């Protein structure tokens, strides 16, 4: 293991503990602020995610956005590969996907222009610490090579951290939405 691997593992462990405490303390409904942000992008193809464990829940905002344009969820293809995004609807039939996240039963892939990104921790400059698989970093790099792609981190305030261990391959967020605020980061 490299030093960076050890450092990132320690940062994730601390961030998971903060996220769990925030999840346990906050009632559902934080997606209202996310809905407000997405309202400025009506009809733009977007991807959310199916929340697992203690992730903040974007489903209400995704359901609202689905009335205006395509909404998808990530589908892991294989280790080391970028994500694909399959069309999701609030009443669509889901099946179990990798890592316990639900995915649409029928694949209907498209390229989103906005990604609501789950995370373990974020910093005040738009840095993101994910789960360590590099899926979103690879995916954002590929999508951004084709067209402007907006990456919106969705998290609890408690997930903010100073001095995240970031590497050159880590893709920055354009914005972070929490239960109490919206942070934007200039390119």
From TrEMBL:
InterPro entries referenced in this protein's UniProt entry, alphabetically: FTHF_cligase, FTHF_cligase-like_sf, NagB/RpiA_transferase-like
Keyword match Ligase: yes
EC number(s) given by UniProt: 6.3.3.2
Enzyme class, UniProt record, top EC level: ligase
Reaction equations catalysed: (6S)-5-formyl-5,6,7,8-tetrahydrofolate + ATP = (6R)-5,10-methenyltetrahydrofolate + ADP + phosphate
Keywords: ATP-binding, Ligase, Magnesium, Metal-binding, Nucleotide-binding
GO biological process: folic acid-containing compound biosynthetic process; tetrahydrofolate interconversion
GO molecular function ontology, one term from the record: 5-formyltetrahydrofolate cyclo-ligase activity
Cofactors that this protein relies on: Mg(2+)
SUPFAM superfamilies the record matches: NagB/RpiA/CoA transferase-like
PANTHER family membership: 5-FORMYLTETRAHYDROFOLATE CYCLO-LIGASE (PTHR23407:SF1), ATPASE INHIBITOR/5-FORMYLTETRAHYDROFOLATE CYCLO-LIGASE (PTHR23407)
Family: Belongs to the 5-formyltetrahydrofolate cyclo-ligase family.
Protein name: 5-formyltetrahydrofolate cyclo-ligase
């Amino acid at each position: 293991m490299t030093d960076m691997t050890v450092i990132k593992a320690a940062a994730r462990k601390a961030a998971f503990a903060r996220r769990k405490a925030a999840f346990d303390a906050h009632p559902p409904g934080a997606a209202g602020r996310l809905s407000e942000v997405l309202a400025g992008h009506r009809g733009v193809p977007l991807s959310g995610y199916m929340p697992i464990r203690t992730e903040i829940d974007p489903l209400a905002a995704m359901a609202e956005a689905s009335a205006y344009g395509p909404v998808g969820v990530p589908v892991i293809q294989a280790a080391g590969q970028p994500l694909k995004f399959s069309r999701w609807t609030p009443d669509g039939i889901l099946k179990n996907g990798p890592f316990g996240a639900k995915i649409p039963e029928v694949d209907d892939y498209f390229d989103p222009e906005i990604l609501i990104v789950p995370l373990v921790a974020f910093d005040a400059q738009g840095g993101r610490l994910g789960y360590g698989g590099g899926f979103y970093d690879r995916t954002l790099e590929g999508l951004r090579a084709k067209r402007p792609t907006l990456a919106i981190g969705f998290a609890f305030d408690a997930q903010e951290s100073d001095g995240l261990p970031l590497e050159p391959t880590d893709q920055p967020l354009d914005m972070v939405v929490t239960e109490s605020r919206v942070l934007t980061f200039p390119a």
